[in-house]
């Protein structure tokens, strides 16, 4: 579905300096790289968790996949999506091919209603329909993420809670009907009840749309839904494989063995139910 091959990412303003320091990736690593030789493959209908502590490069990887951050640039490597090289494609081109992303901090669009914001996703999908079809699809997406239809008339302002804004942004991604969803810590700052609801939404979305999900997180609970995982540390891949195996490595490296054991017992009980 999507494959990242030998990806090197650096801050754009330092690219010229990096070129002088290293003419090939075989030379000694420059500390200026944000991501170093990243190789990850995400299969069809797979939930793949990207694990790592804050500052490890997880969000940088998400932005590189979508081509969104003008402050960074891919130095070497490729991003292959459904057999096509999309490394140099613009964000809207990647979106139309079937990539979509929800941010860790949902965007604010003061003055826009929720309906107007969600309509942008329909336009990106190539649907400019007005009238009842638009309204029904938007209301359906809100119900999908656990919000009432009346939220369509609300404004995207400070009166919305953080959880509500995250749900609305997730609805906007779902409306695009992507082939791959990139979710940057959608479970951050959520309590245990809410993130369980979130994981249920993601599982339902995967099954109904038939998409893959790249779930960027540092929570052990992602094992409730994740098939595989990749652990990133200091911009490099430490391990990639089945979620539980990679999570165990993460817990050990971060001194969280007790928490990892608790989750292992919990996940075993859940799988036996």
Describe the structure.
The chain has 273 residues and is of the alpha/beta class. The protein has a domain at 42-71 and 90-98 and 178-272: Rossmann fold, CATH 3.40.50.300. The chain has nine helices and ten strands. The protein has helices at residues 15-21, 58-66, 91-97, 114-124, 132-144, 162-175, 192-209, 243-253, 257-272; strands at 2-11, 35-42, 47-51, 72-81, 84-85, 99-102, 180-184, 212-216, 228-233, 236-242. A six-stranded mixed β-sheet has the order 6-7-8-3-9-10, sandwiched between helices. A hairpin with a 2-residue loop joins strand 4 (72-81) and strand 5. Helix 4 (114-124) packs across helix 5 (132-144) and helix 4 packs parallel to helix 6. The longest helix has 18 residues, at 192-209. The radius of gyration is 19 Å and the shape is globular. The model is unreliable at 17-30 (pLDDT under 50).
